[in-house]
Structure formats: structure tokens, C-alpha cells
Amino acid sequence: MTALVPYVTGGITDDWTDYLLAYQEAGATAIEIGLPFSDPMLDGVTIQQASDRSLSRGTTVASILEDLHHVRGQVRVPLIVMTYANLVFHRSATVFCRELAEAGIDALIVPDLPVDEAAPVAVAAADAGLDLIPLVAPVTPDDRLADIAALGDSYIYAVSVMGTTGERTALGDAAGRLAARVKAITDRPVLIGFGVSSPAQAAEAGRAGDGVVVASALMRRVLDGATAAELRETVASLAAALEDSTDYATAEVSGDRR
Amino acid sequence: MTSTTSTLMTEPAAGRFGDFGGRFVPESLVPACAALAVAFREAWADPGFRSELDELLAVYAGRPTPLTPARNLSAQLGVELLLKREDLAHTGSHKINNVLGQAMLARRMGKTRLIAETGAGQHGVATATAAALLGLGATVYMGERDIERQQLNVLRMTTLGAEVVPVTSGSRTLKDATNEAMRAWVSDVDEAHFLLGSVGGPHPYPWMVRELQRVIGAEARRQSPTVPDVVVACVGGGSNAAGTFAGFVDTSARLVGVEAAGGAAMTNGSPGVVHGARSMVLQDAEGQVTEAESIAAGLDYPGIGPEHAHLGAIGRAEYRTVTDAEVVDAVRRLARSEGIICALESAHAVAWVLRAAGTPDLPTGSRVILTLSGRGDKDMTTMLGGAA
């Protein structure tokens, strides 16, 4: 079963947790929550705008965790936080990871924390019971892939394109090639993200990896004023496309995949 | 721990300057940064590369730049003030030193285009210049607000054939231009070299840019009859200061960096990670990077190079601040005393000397070498606005 991981920028609206619950109802396997940062170096214009809007509303890490506390009883899927290194280190990685874990967060993605700089966060995350999800890119050499795969033990996040986050008309074949390279060296499941916008692209990514992150395509709708009910439909269509692709992939597996 | 003498002298092990530095970039950029570090290490050890760069610096950029005694100001202030004249280098600032070296390196690595960020536009102009000279493309990211206040430099860049891309996110200044340049680099790491203009960013930039700017301090030391008591330079990201300090770190000279009061990462910042390095950063209680506010676009930046953070932490360098009003006054005073119109950025160093001379911070009789990092033509409109 291919995982579907939709994204929401924490604090983007007063009732942003409605989006989270809508994603869950629509069949999300897990949900990624962005903690907005002033200088999101790896994000394209949509997530930049979403971050700016959230921060201008006075959002803080604490306010997002507090909002999550109010819906904690209703959330059944794993929650993954994505944020930048400065927010992780600001008070200390130990405090940050512990507060996330206490708020019911299961995993952490830090796009500007490559494996070479990750040791203190990996230790803090492990102590808090958080999974640190490392990122790999199309340019990551194989020996480095192995070092990265040794960091943590849940998903590996495969950045599907050389570029920032954002919607793209075509996914390209880099995602599939990268996922295959990761799978050649580790049994860890591979999440594919960056540029997955449409149900067709989600299905395509789902055939290459074990899960798909969809962010900018959803946040564009949120920025344009879409309601939680409307986004539930969008996520449901992504889930349906993934389900079809998984059936297709299973059929493929029964044949000779090589 | 890094010892005081190896600071400003050697390649930092693992890109670290004590607790600062590192390489906090997306995985997509790690191989490019690693390849750049290897390429620079090889080029810097290659006598052929060094002599070609030295030749360009001499016959093209106009080096060595003079060390000019500021006789009238010295007499007025009771100190002996010597000006290292980077304002006389080609394109009007010290930025050309770094840019020629990195552009040569980019060509050596087979890159076809340069990506750069710019604040005041001096680094952008220097990048456009080197690109024209070496036959490379150039795309310069510049905050919309800086484009408005540095029109002359925008025209210079486009005349030189560079594409200037306005950056409309965030504070629309250097911080945001740097974000946008790094995003552009991620999308074209094979063809493009990110020509970072200061001693910030991920390893190897702080080391590489300091080495390429070392020529300022090395020349000044050769030109100075004796070791000065104080060496002073303005600090935004800190490249002219790093290059100047590098020539004197192994002497008894005090090293003083002067920050803009509204952009004083050393004085008012705290440790943080931004633009690829751990350094001192202006940020709020939540860890969000705050916007700097300075009359000098080149110092309108909330961070500082990690080696400065280290030099401050170990006490080898001292950092002071001056206000916009002091800076405007310093431009006028230097112009009328010495016949030199310096950049608003460089005037920060002058303003500190004007204020400190004759006080315990800069006792009467001190010998001072001050790096005048650039010329002030670009700032005339801003100066008129300040006078109105």
C-alpha cells in the first residue's frame, strides 16, 4: 500500500487543523506539518507565501503545537514535522525534539540538515522517540546514499527533482531512478516529494516509491481560499489515484520486475 | 580547538571555525559544495592558477591599491590614519578580488554561468564584470528595495551584459536575494557556479572568499612601515574585514570590525543557522531571522561570516557599531578632509575612527590602518535623501 502524505503549513489559518483532519478523512497515510521559517531556502514561491502568511499571523512553534493539542484525540495518522535547522537548534535540538514528541509528533524532516551535520539532531530525535527522516537527492552519490541510509530507521525522503518545492507539469524520470538507487542499498521505505501535483503524478511517483508527499499543489489551494471540505476532495482524488497505481504495481511485482 | 594563529590562516577542518561554520545546505547542494572545496584547494595550490590570478589583479583590477595617509584627518584627530584604497580597485570596491578568483575557478571547473546575490550592487557589478571578461553568463539576484536605491549599479550590471533578477520576497534586500540565488543554484548546479560575495554561506565559501580577499591585508602589511596599533574595516557579511584582518592576525594589531547599528549581528545577534552556516544572526525569540535596517545596502544583512563569529568569541577581533547619522557625517568629513568620497559601507569604519579617536578605545597617537572598501558614487542619491 503506497503511503499518501499531504502537507499543511502550520498556523496558515485560524482553523488550520481542519485541513489536517480533512486530509485524514480523505485517506492520508500520514500528514506533514510545516513549521514556518523566515528563510525557507529550499522552498518555492507557494510554500514561501504560505510560510510568510502563517508567520504574519503570529504563528510560533509553540502555537502550532498548542493547536495540535486541541485535536490530538481526533488524529489517528502519524504526524511528520518539516522545518529548517535554525528552528531546531534555536533553543537546543534536545528541547525541540522533546516538545515535538510530547505534542504527538512522530517524525522530523529538516531540509537544510545534511547527514554531515545531523548527528546532534539524530541523537536528540532518537532520545525523544522521533524518527529523523533524511533526504536524498538525484545528485547524491551511491557511497553517500549508504551513509544517509544509516541515519534513522523509518522513511527516506527522495527529492525527486533538482530544484525547490513547487508544482511542476511533469515529474521527470529522476524520481524513479533515485528511488531505485535507494532501494538497491536499503530496505527502508522511500517517500517521494517535490513537484508532485496531480493525481497522475502521484500515481507515477507511487509506482517508483513507497509513499508520496504532496505539498505545494495543496497549499496553492489553501492560499487561494479553498475550504477544508474542498481539500478533502482533492486529497481523496490523490488517494484514489495512488490506490489504482498500487494495484498496478502489485500486478507488476507478480511478473518479473527486473 | 582552533588556535588563534590558525584562525584566518588555514583551511578550516570540516569547514568549522570553532563553534561556527559548517555546511547547512539541502542535500541537492552538498555534492556541489564538496566539489567546489576540492577544486578551490587544488587551484589555490596550483602556481599556474595563482600567477594568472595575480596577473589579472595587477593589469586588470589595478592592484596593488595604495595605502594613503589621511594627513588632514590624522592631524585633526590626533591619530595616524592610513587608508587601504579598495575604492580604487576596478569596479570601485574590494569585491573584484573575490570575483576574479571565483570566476577563474568556475571556468576551470567547466561552468558556463555565474549566479550571484547582491545588496549594494558592488558584488553584482564585480560579478558582471568578471563574467564579461571570462566569457561566462551572469544572473544577479537583487532585492527590489535595493534595486530602487542602487539604480546606478543596476544600470552598470545590465550594461555589462548581466541579467538582474528583482527579488520580491521577505524584506526585499540582501537576505532574500541570497535565498533566491541559492534556490537558483539548486536548479542548475551542473552549469552554474554560485559566486557568493562574502565570507558567509556553506563551506568552502567562508574560507575561499577570505583567501581571495587576503590580498588586501597582505598588501597593506607590506605597504605599512610598521605594525599598526589598530586595523579597522566595516563588516556586513565581512569579506573586506576578513581579507584585511588575515594580513594582521599574527601581529599585535587590534582588529576592529564596524557594524551598522541596524544590522549588527555580532553585537545584537545570537548563534543561529542561516544561508548554510552556523554564525551570529539577528533573530527574534522564536528563531525567525529579523530584517536588518541600514542606510548602507551592502551592510543590510542580518548575519555575518562564521569566522568573524569565531574571532569575536575567542576575543581576537572586536566589533563596534555606528549609526546611519554618524555614517552620513563620516562620508562628508572624509570627502572634505581628504578629497575621497567613500561608500556608505566603508564610511562605517571611518565613523568609528571619528568617534573613538582620543578616547580609551583609540588613544591619541595610535597608528590605524582602515580599509576603505569602496567608492561612494553609487550612494549620492541616498546621501541627498539623507540631507533633505
TrEMBL record, chain A:
Pathway involvement of the protein, from the record: Amino-acid biosynthesis; L-tryptophan biosynthesis; L-tryptophan from chorismate: step 5/5
Alphabetical list of Gene3D superfamilies matching this protein: Aldolase class I
InterPro entries reported in the protein's UniProt record: Aldolase_TIM, RibuloseP-bd_barrel, Trp_synthase_alpha_AS, Trp_synthase_suA
GO CC annotations on file: cytosol
Keyword Ribosomal protein belongs to the record: no
Reaction equations catalysed: (1S,2R)-1-C-(indol-3-yl)glycerol 3-phosphate + L-serine = D-glyceraldehyde 3-phosphate + L-tryptophan + H2O
Gene Ontology molecular functions: tryptophan synthase activity
Enzyme category, top tier: lyase
The entry's keywords: Amino-acid biosynthesis, Aromatic amino acid biosynthesis, Lyase, Tryptophan biosynthesis
EC code(s) of this entry: 4.2.1.20
Catalytic residue positions: E32, D43
Purpose of the protein: The alpha subunit is responsible for the aldol cleavage of indoleglycerol phosphate to indole and glyceraldehyde 3-phosphate.
NCBIfam families: trpA
Subunit: Tetramer of two alpha and two beta chains.
Family in the record: Belongs to the TrpA family.
Listed name of the protein: Tryptophan synthase alpha chain
Gene (name only): trpA
From TrEMBL, chain B:
Keywords linked to the UniProt accession: Amino-acid biosynthesis, Aromatic amino acid biosynthesis, Lyase, Pyridoxal phosphate, Tryptophan biosynthesis
Record-listed E.C. numbers: 4.2.1.20
Enzyme's top EC category: lyase
Cofactors, names only: pyridoxal 5'-phosphate
GO cellular component, one term: cytoplasm
N6-(pyridoxal phosphate)lysine PTM positions: K95
Gene3D superfamilies hit by this protein: 3.40.50.1100
PANTHER family listed in its UniProt record: TRYPTOPHAN SYNTHASE (PTHR48077:SF3), TRYPTOPHAN SYNTHASE-RELATED (PTHR48077)
HAMAP family to which the protein is assigned, alphabetical: Trp_synth_beta
Function: The beta subunit is responsible for the synthesis of L-tryptophan from indole and L-serine.
Subunit structure: Tetramer of two alpha and two beta chains.
Family classification: Belongs to the TrpB family.
Protein's UniProt name: Tryptophan synthase beta chain
Organism from which the protein derives: Paractinoplanes atraurantiacus
Lineage: Bacteria, Bacillati, Actinomycetota, Actinomycetes, Micromonosporales
Name of encoding gene: trpB
